[in-house]
Amino acid sequence: MTIYALSTGPGISGVAIIRSSGEDTEKIIQILTNKPLPIPRVATLRKINKINTSELIDEGIILWFPGPESYTGEDMAEFHIHGSKAVIDALHLSISQIENCRLAEPGEFTKLAFQNGKINLLKAESIADLISAETEIQRQQAVRIMNGKSANKFNELREKLLKILSNVEAKIDFPDENLPETILKNIKKNTNEVYLDIKKILDDQRVGERIRDGFKIAIVGPANAGKSSLLNHLSNRDVAIVSEIAGTTRDVIETHLNIDGYPVIVSDTAGIRESIDEIEKKGVKLALDKAEDADLKLIVIDARSLDFKGVLRDLMDESAILVVNKSDLLNKDLNSKIKNFNHVLISVKDNLNIDGLILKIKNKLKKKFITNDDILITRERHRQHLEQSLTYLKNFEEKNQAEDFDKAAEDLRLATRHLGMIVGKVDVEEILGSIFSNFCIGK
Hints:
By secondary structure, this protein is of the alpha/beta class. It has three domains: 2-112, Probable tRNA modification gtpase trme, domain 1 (Gyrase A, domain 2, 2-Layer Sandwich); 149-204 and 379-438, Four Helix Bundle (Hemerythrin (Met), subunit A), CATH 1.20.120; 211-368, 3-Layer(aba) Sandwich (Rossmann fold). It is built from 16 helices and twelve strands.
């Protein structure tokens, strides 16, 4: 089937782009324009007509990309038309009436590019990340992965394991042949190198995932301390209901923010206090769970009643900032015990020292987003495959030392497979290719 879809955002715009990909793309162009194909990869102005009639839909630019030199690897075209709903709908309707043409599923163009070997799985994922990037740091990360450094590293590690596996397979298949001593030593040395490389990549403080998904900030504290007011102030809009009635916030309210280019998810939580109300109890539990899971906790307390003990005090650690709110109502100096904590004195109502709080948050963000390596794990899927690969490498080392080569080879094969799954490359036949290229078997 040949697929087609609107590739630009919905709504009124100066220009809209409709893509098509598949073996009938050539037919689509000819039927809609009643003219021969344009010169490949040259923008060509054409009148675009309704199917089987001479009624004009629009006059626009057509780009023709014969496969395999196209984004998807198939014959592909782009129709650059005026971006009104009526024009888009008319062109969609005409293409739908051509035999073997259907509307594309979400992500299907990129899926075809992956299936046809135009891009690897990491690049496909980074394209999705680039499209959804809301902050500069998210854009930079997506571009870095698109450039292929991460994929190259995973492929390099995988190639090393394939070579080790070919040596082990040769030892199994040809037990009577004496392999050079250097090869046997290199099996242990190279396996250890790959193991340490993977371990280093995993020891990343989840920076890549934080950048992609957002740095999690939980606002916690006793009831009526001003948590919801702080959330609204940081968001510049009324996200949460603010009331003098204690216990107004019962559920977790989240909002996505951009703080100096860093993506953050700020959560307002229920006031932490003893309660006999079952719903409020659940809200307090959710608040504590959210605080436990957060990258940064803003513990908000009232400057007049410094309710800072028990659970709240236990939450104060390196990933917490004590926020003393309602400082406009403070008639005396802060308690000396409070001063010993990493704190900031603010008044949301009078907009006092909010900049100081934001500066503290920024400094925390910068420390969390620091990385010395360009190889970033951006998805839980990557992490799981790397952890699995590490486990199988550990098993391989134990079985290899015990000279249980058959089982050791299977562990190494599985470690290789998990590395391949990150970039979407799994091919058992490559092991045979590696054996034949490295050993002159049957000469």
